[in-house]
Amino acid sequence: MSMLLEVEAADVHYGELKALHGIDLRIAEGETLAVIGANGAGKSTLLKTIAGVLRPSSGAVRFAGEDVSGLGPNRRVAQGIALTPEGRRIFGSMTVEENLLVGAHTRRPGPWSLAAVYEAFPILAELQDRRGGVLSGGQQQATAIARALMSNPRLLLLDEVSLGLAPVVIADIYAALPRIAEMGTTVLIVEQDLSQVLRAADRVQCLLEGRTVLEAPAAEVTREQVAAAYFGLDREAS
Amino acid sequence: MAWVNAVVQGLLLGGSYALLACGLSLMFGVMRLVNLAHGALAVAAAYVAMSVVDGTGVPAFLSLLVVVPLFAVAGYALQRGLFNRALGFGELSPLLVSFGLAVIVSNGLQQVYSSDSRSIGIGELATASIRLGGDLSIGVFSLITLAVGVVVIAGVQLFLARTRTGRAMRATRDDGEAARLMGIDDGHLYAVATAIALGTVALAGVFLGMSTQFTPGYGDLVLIFAFEAVIIGGLGSLWGTLLGGLVLGVAQTVGAQVDPAYGVLAGHLVFLAVLLLKPSGLLPKVVPA
Q: E strand or H helix at A97, and its extent?
């Protein structure tokens, strides 16, 4: 299986603060990987580094075999990396449909079109003329994921899908993920909330304070292992 | 009848203000950049058109085929080379840079063309008029200017509303970082916006030069009128800018009807009244929270 994304020994700093310590991450084409961890573990930083918003101070990001470390976020979208950012970041003055069309700005060819995302998220078809600024959190999240899909990414990065949403809304959003994977899109989900993500993912990687502390197939890990890694209990015990 | 005439002439005058203000409004609307060189660039376009007409003998309107593309290309280069860099240093930097540019342009014009007042000859069109009955008649050239102003503003508005590039501009205005995550190259997009803005500035400047006498320093007055039209209409709204231009024009002619010395003053007073009573302008851009 060829690797679609390889992050190698990436160090990332916010000014003086070192947020990621030599992180390695690999995803095969078609796989769904969940990156979990507590607040401040470096999950969002990792996603921003993959999307090109942040640049690693050392290490490399390779996508489809090519080093993309030097490319800005807009160039990486053209290569096939799309990020649904933390906080959704919907264009508030534009309608849902316009938001989706902006997502298709790069005109990358692929299976996703307005019709396809409306089929995956039926709620959006009803809301297409609604302005982004007046949507509820769940509607915004669905719009944000659909907008990212419109760029026909090979790799979809989802940052904190469940943040601030009611459990029933979270379940609705996760219900759309298998369809995205079926289309052949590789998905990297970052989550704090473990209720849905372990079922949706093939593999799980847990971060703690900017380092990987657990990496395993999602079907094989127990809640105890995850909890221990998530809160750093192993380390304290040893 | 005299008052009706004043209002009609004011609407016609307002058309030229709206045309002048369109580029200023577009640049502010897309990238929050107040281009203080706007007036100086409009006057520069008038001088370039005059040189083209004098040098080749072509009719004045044909000079637009040279001047508008020339200024659009210059606008793209200006944004890429100067304003984009300035935007990286905060909001005040582009303001200062454009002020410096205004000084350079107006002094450059003075160096090349001297400070004599000039105009672009359009022959009989300058005095042609249509009689609407009674004492009321309207100048053909003013009517053309108003029509061009409306068409340009409607065209730019349509471009922003319907095209892929226009949508990308609105997305960038809403949230620049999120727009980059959609694959949008904001540096290029800003340059396209400035290219369009300077194209309209060139058009407005040449029309100005065909309607009135101008000097290298005339851009200061142009900037003030364009700025007033934008503020009266509401920042960031192109239809508002059209309305603002018309309101300013009517205020000036009605003021001048009261006393010929009060025309420009009346325009300033309406501007101040709008700032006091409705600071967001008459047609503010609706942006939901």
A: helix A96-103
Q: What is the pLDDT of residues A120-136, one digit of tens each?
A: 999 999 999 999 999 99
Q: Is residue B77 part of a domain?
A: yes
Count other C-beta atoms under 10 Å from residue A52's C-beta: 24
Domain at B102, CATH number = 1.10.3470
Nearest to A234 by CA among A225, A34, A192: A225
Residues of A with CB under 8 A from a CB of B: 51, 53, 72-75, 77-78, 82-83, 85, 89-94, 98-99, 101-103, 105-106, 131-134, 147, 151
The tens digit of pLDDT for each residue in B229-262 reads: 999 999 888 999 999 999 999 999 999 999 999 9
Residue ranges of alpha helices (H) inside chain B are 2-31, 38-56, 64-78, 84-87, 92-113, 140-162, 164-174, 176-180, 186-211, 219-233, 238-258, 263-277
CATH class of A3-88+159-237: alpha beta
Give the residue carrying structure tokens 């080749």.
B56
Of A104, A102, A89, which is closest to residue A152 (Cα–Cα)?
A104
Length of chain B: 289
Three-class SS string for B98-127? Answer: HHHHHHHHHHHHHHHHCCCCECCCCHHHHC
| Span B78-101, average pLDDT | 94
For B162, name the nearest residue in chain A, comparing CA atoms only: A98
CB B70 within 8 A of CB B202: yes
pLDDT tens, residue by residue, A19-45: 999 999 999 999 999 999 988 888 999
Chain A residue with the nearest C-alpha to that of B173: A91
**Structural tokens at position A22:** 């030599």
A134 and B288: CB-CB below 8 Å?
A: yes
User: Residue B217: which domain range?
Assistant: 2-277
Taking CA–CA distances from B285, the nearest residue in chain A reads A93
pLDDT of residue A238 exceeding 70, the answer is no
pLDDT at A237 over 50: no
The Cα B233–Cα B252 span in angstroms is 16
In chain B, positions 182-201, which contact chain A (CB-CB < 8 Å)? Answer: 182-186
- Cβ contacts (< 8 Å) between A141 and chain B: which residues? none
DSSP one-letter code for A210: T
What is the distance between the terminal CA atoms of chain B, rounded to a whole angstrom? 47
Inside any domain, residue B111: yes
Q: Is 0.85 exceeded by the ipTM?
A: yes
∠ at Cα A36 (A32, A38), nearest 5°?
Answer: 165
Quote the CA–CA distance of A208 and A210 in Å, as a whole number. 6
Number of domains in chain B: 1
Taking the CA atoms of residue A185, residue A133, residue A139 and residue A42 in that order, the dihedral angle to the nearest 10 degrees is: 50
